[in-house]
């Protein structure tokens, strides 16, 4: 299912999240199970509400939105063949980042590292916007993979910061 069509928003990476939210709440109101007039209609509304919730959750998330746009274009970044095409130099850098997180117990270093990764994330999102707007799916695929790994690194460094701070 195309979540952009379901929520009636432009099929592009960079759209106004406020529009997404407005469309989401309007559809939720329309298909709320309490508005159903029969048991069958209630079942259908429940199913529709679940799909609307999935669409909203996916499109609100930067990585989810990229993955969905790529799926619409026939590319699944979870596919092993796609993952195997990830450039080795990026994988080496990712391993270095994870090793740094594992090895460091210096709170300030970890916080600085997290800030650096947050800046990288913003840069990757800009690359995604450009790749999708120019319909360069190969660049969008690479950027989506980079975003996935960067978000994973940020999550791991946040956990390490929490552990070191306690």
Description of the molecule:
- The protein has 166 residues and is mainly alpha-helical.
- It folds into 2 domains: 3-60, Orthogonal Bundle (Helix Hairpins); 80-165, Monooxygenase.
- The protein contains 8 helices and no strands.
- The protein has helices spanning 3-7, 17-30, 39-60, 62-72, 80-83, 88-103, 107-133, 137-165.
- It is globular, with a radius of gyration of 19 Å.
- The model has no long low-confidence stretch (mean pLDDT 95).
Kindly list the characteristics that best describe this protein.
166 residues; mainly alpha; Helix Hairpins; Monooxygenase; 2 domains; 8 helices; 77% helix
What's the structural blueprint in terms of helices and strands?
Blueprint: H1 3-7, H2 17-30, H3 39-60, H4 62-72, H5 80-83, H6 88-103, H7 107-133, H8 137-165
In a few lines, what is going on in this structure?
This protein is mostly helical.
Main beta sheet strand tally, sense and closure: none
- Nearest-angstrom radius of gyration? 19 Å
Q: Which segments are poorly predicted (pLDDT under 50) over 5 or more consecutive residues? A: none
How many distinct beta strands?
0
Helix content: over 70%
Mean pLDDT, to the nearest integer, reads 95
**Distance between the first and last residues' Cα:** 45 Å
Backbone shape: globular
Number of helices: 8
Total count of domains: 2
> Helix and strand string, N-terminal first?
HHHHHHHH
Strand fraction band?
A: under 5%
> Which CATH class of the largest domain?
Mainly Alpha
Q: What's the architecture of the largest domain, going by CATH? A: Up-down Bundle
């Amino acid at each position: 299912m195309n979540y952009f069509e379901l929520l009636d928003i432009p099929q592009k990476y960079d759209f106004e999240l406020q529009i997404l939210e407005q469309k989401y709440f309007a559809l939720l109101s329309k298909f709320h199970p309490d508005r159903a007039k029969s048991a069958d209609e209630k079942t259908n509304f429940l199913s529709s509400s679940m799909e609307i919730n999935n669409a909203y959750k996916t499109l609100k998330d930067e990585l989810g939105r990229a993955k969905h746009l790529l799926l619409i274009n026939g590319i699944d970044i979870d596919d092993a063949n796609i993952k195997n095409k990830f450039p080795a130099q990026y994988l080496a850098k990712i391993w270095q980042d994870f090793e740094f997180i594992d090895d460091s117990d210096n709170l300030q270093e970890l916080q600085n590292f997290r800030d650096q990764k947050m800046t990288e994330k913003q840069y990757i999102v800009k690359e995604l916007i450009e790749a999708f707007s120019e319909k360069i799916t190969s660049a969008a695929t690479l950027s989506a993979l980079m975003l996935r790994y960067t978000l994973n690194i940020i999550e791991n460094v946040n956990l390490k910061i929490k552990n070191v701070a306690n």
